[in-house]
From TrEMBL:
It comes from the Bacteria. One of its GO terms (molecular function) is transferase activity. Residues 5-67 form the Ribbon-helix-helix domain. Pfam families: RHH_4 (PF13467). The lineage of its organism: Bacteria, Pseudomonadati, Pseudomonadota, Alphaproteobacteria, Hyphomicrobiales. InterPro entries: RHH_dom, RHH_sf. This is Aryl-sulfate sulfotransferase. Keywords: Transferase. It comes from Phyllobacterium sophorae. The keyword Transferase applies.
């Protein structure tokens, strides 16, 4: 079971929070490590590119899902 957990990060000079299940958070951490960027940098990038009608937590989940889909299809 993966409970939703609230987390905080500083991006562009201010604190922001998001809520993610551990599984999604682990994927986001993996993406940051693979791309050799900080977690805050990756979250800032996702935040900047997200649809303003969606919240940051949703944008992070979609980003993680898209990343997994791309990686799964490239390994088939």
């Amino acid at each position: 079971m993966s409970l939703v957990r609230k987390r905080s990060v500083s991006i562009r000079g201010h604190r922001t929070s998001f809520s993610l299940e551990n599984a999604f958070y682990d994927i986001i951490l993996s993406i940051a490590a693979e791309r050799e960027v900080t977690l805050a940098s990756l979250i800032a990038e996702i935040d900047e590119s997200r649809d303003r009608d969606s919240n940051l937590s949703s944008a992070l989940r979609i980003y993680a899902l898209d990343w997994v889909r791309k990686n799964c299809s490239s390994h088939q």
